[in-house]
DNA sequence: AACAGTATGTCAGTAACTGCCATGTTGGCG
DNA sequence: CGCCAACATGGCAGTTACTGACATACTGTT
């Protein structure tokens, strides 16, 4: 995240002065934008409004964010770490699902430790709630993460990069994680003091229970019974 | 889809003359738009271009499609049927996953029977491939279907409408179905005569095999072992 | 102190999209 | 047949998102 092209040593924090300013204005624009979005909605907020409120020219705004909507997410996503962690676990021999779930659990536990970041995340979640244009951005971004994670995982498992099975597994695992995250947000908003990790753990447990209950003989993603390679009569014939 | 407000009998095809014209111009705009998109790309195609090529005014264009991108999808989605079918199966006592997979398999088999529709679907798929704005539309639409299906299924199962477990299951099942669809498209483009249903069946079979192989003692979505309700030590506690 | 690199602003221009009003066109109904 | 209500379309003006080109200022380095 902080890595640059020509710095010999991977220095940690001593950011360039310019860089620091750039980040400052970035955050300033972001905060002003979120404020206005919350206040009047995305559609009713013009770029000129945001620029004026942030003390910059509209032209400069577009040098920081590709679109109005992008200004809502200045997020330095923790997801890069999640990908790396997952791949490391897989290379260490962990099954795919275990690696994914553990990594999510770890990230969530980490989030549970920083109440400050919670509020920011909540704010964005609530903001995006009723704004289709923002939801679209988030969903597309989710898809990108899934794709990246699937490709890396497949390679780490010694499978082709576009392996369908791995993609399906990643979609399932990440889907559950996102549901937990949303639920956690809802709970917090309702005043209930749930932890993200707890919500996630409970969802996973309920999922296994649900599958056991729905298909007692063999819980799992695929159709019950049958041999690979041909459609099994039981399941989707008729 | 054809149902109207004030027609006493649910007449089948005798569409209003006006209605028919409207559908004609809709399709005309759609086809012209897809053609131009394929030819020069979405970004390089203006609404004025499309309107001119379709013989209408730009103003009229926006009375048919909300945005330029929407013109790429005049689709009369078969998904309404899929939802209904799934819910019926659930109410008939089928487990959720079975109902979902069977409905998808049915829809796919149906698609396999109409070579004409194949080409159209392929064209759109290929078109959307490299166009981020189109992908975004599709992904959002997918999300809508998931949400609708999850809500209906949950209610049909006697669970709360926003039940997380059901949502997770629907996301997983639909995710696999979409992967199969995309793969099928890829195969067809490569000249291989695969059937959609076959591709889907194979993916499902491979999925069960994969989970068996990855977690021999108990394949499934959730963490291996452990009792519901509390985090199991095995899995995500380091 | 000069210089290269970068951040910012101004300006002009394109194109998406909307509201308003005027003009046809269609489908009943007396 | 002729009138009328409903609807489809076009033209126009206006707002807003976004981009390229150019000029100017600021930063960090030698």
In short:
The structure is a homodimer of 238-residue chains. Chain A is mostly helical.
Q: What would you say this structure looks like, in words?
A:
Two copies of one chain form a homodimer. Chain A is an all-alpha fold. Chain A has ten helices and no strands. In chain A, α4 packs antiparallel against α5, α5 packs parallel to α8 and α5 runs antiparallel to α9. The longest helix of chain A has 26 residues. The N terminus and C terminus of chain A are likely disordered. At the A-B interface, α5, α7, α8 and α9 of A face α5, α7, α8 and α9 of B. The first copy, chain A, binds a DNA duplex (30 and 30 nucleotides) through α1 and α3.
Supply the key terms:
homodimer, 238 residues, mainly alpha, 10 helices, disordered C terminus, DNA-binding
Record field, number of beta strands of chain A: 0
CA-CA gap between termini of chain A: 52 Å
Into which percent range does the helicity of residues of chain A fall?
55-70%
How many helices of chain A in DSSP terms? 10
Topology readout:
The structure is a homodimer of 238-residue chains.
Chain A: H1 17-40, H2 47-54, H3 58-64, H4 79-91, H5 96-112, H6 115-129, H7 132-156, H8 164-189, H9 196-214, H10 233-236
The first copy, chain A, binds a DNA duplex (30 and 30 nucleotides) through helix 1 and helix 3.
């Amino acid at each position: 995240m902080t890595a640059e092209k020509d710095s010999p040593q991977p220095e940690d924090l001593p950011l360039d002065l310019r860089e620091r300013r750039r980040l400052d204005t970035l955050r300033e624009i972001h905060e002003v934008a979120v404020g206005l979005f919350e206040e009047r909605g995305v559609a009713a907020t013009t770029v000129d409004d945001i620029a004026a409120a942030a003390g910059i020219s509209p032209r400069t705004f577009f040098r920081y964010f590709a679109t109005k909507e992008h200004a809502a997410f200045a997020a330095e996503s923790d997801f890069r770490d999640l990908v790396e962690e997952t791949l490391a676990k897989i290379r260490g021999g962990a099954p795919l699902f275990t690696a994914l779930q553990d990594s999510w659990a770890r990230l969530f536990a980490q989030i549970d430790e920083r109440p400050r970041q919670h509020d920011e995340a909540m704010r964005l979640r609530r903001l995006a709630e009723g704004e289709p244009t923002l939801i679209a951005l988030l969903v597309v971004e989710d898809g990108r993460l899934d794709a990246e994670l699937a490709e890396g995982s497949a390679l780490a498992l010694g499978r082709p990069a576009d392996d369908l099975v791995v993609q399906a597994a990643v979609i399932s695992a990440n889907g559950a994680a996102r549901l937990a995250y949303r639920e956690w947000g809802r709970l917090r908003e309702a005043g209930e003091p749930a932890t993200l990790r707890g919500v996630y753990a409970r969802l996973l447990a309920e999922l296994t229970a649900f599958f056991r209950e729905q298909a007692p003989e063999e819980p799992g993603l695929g159709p019950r019974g049958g041999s690979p390679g041909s459609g099994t009569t039981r399941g989707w014939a008729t």
